Amino acid sequence: MAEAPDRYALFGHPVMHSWSPFIHGMFAQQFDHDIQYRLIDATADRFRKAVIDFFVEGGRGINVTVPHKQAAAELVNELTPRAERAGAVNTIYVPDSTTLIGDNTDGAGLAKDLTVNLGLMLHGRRILILGAGGAVRGVLAPLLRQRPSVLHIANRTPARAEDLAGEFADLGKVAASGFASAAAQPWDLIINATSASLTGDVPEFEGSALAPETVCYDMSYGHGDTPFLRWARAHGATMLHKGWGMLVEQAAEAYFLWRGVRPDTRPVLDALTAN
Ligand code: ATR
Fold first, then answer.
1. Are 135 and 112 in contact (CB under 8 A)?
2. Which of 117, 193, 232, 241 could form a disulfide with 237 if both were Cys (CB 3.0 to 4.6 A apart)?
3. 160 CB under 6 A from ligand 1?
4. Ligand 1 touching residue 220 (CB < 6 A)
5. Where are the domains of the chain?
6. Residue of minimum CA distance from atom 7 in ligand 1
7. What pTM value is reported for the model?
8. Which positions of the chain have pLDDT values less than 70?
């Protein structure tokens, strides 16, 4: 009898529209690995039990998405240093059959997309990040490691941005404010990490934050311009990127944790962005 495939899954709520099965399926093809990658929609009250059942039944690894990344950090036996810093877990792996280790590959995924796929030099640059939720918390350390001249967190609720800036101040120069005072002069790179796109909104932000050469990166993705990129284009920005690369790179990093090999991300990214 043929051996059963190694089982992986994405836990979230909702997860129906996720591209992760496609991405991990393409990775597995590169190595001729026999894997199964499922989507598991679990509400907050069912999340913990569903994850434990998955591993008890022989599952090899999982990804975790909204809204469970913090709950995932609480259920694992150990956190990697970067997951501990982020306070959130997007990948769980089992180096032996009894220990669940929680890691966070989101920040590494964003940094790789910016610096390798897009070839941006972040050292000495002025970076503005919009938002102060879980998505921002996960990426601050890898961004600061690139040593920008300043990393400014702007949020609709300024107190949340200030709290985050205080928490990461030991890693580099981090400033914080509401949206209005962050728009006084153009930035080299603006990253939208708010969840405003999910509702079709654009963070209320002045166009004075943009110059034609400002790189605008939206962690969201989808068909056509996101609301943030539409806004940036309307204000004269020309270097616009969606978060497909971050999505694929964080997945590749998870695949490496699970299976010890690094997939080639380029063909997967090309397939996702072909249309
Ligand atoms: P995530 O894990 O995606 O970061 P989150 O922790 O709920 O989710 O954070 C959502 C972020 O998007 C917050 O920074 C939120 O701003 P507030 O802290 O002021 O709530 C931001 N956000 C959501 N909708 C927004 C909107 N319409 N305009 C501007 N910011 C918005």
1. no
2. 232
3. yes
4. no
5. 6-104, 107-245
6. 133
7. 0.95
8. 1, 275
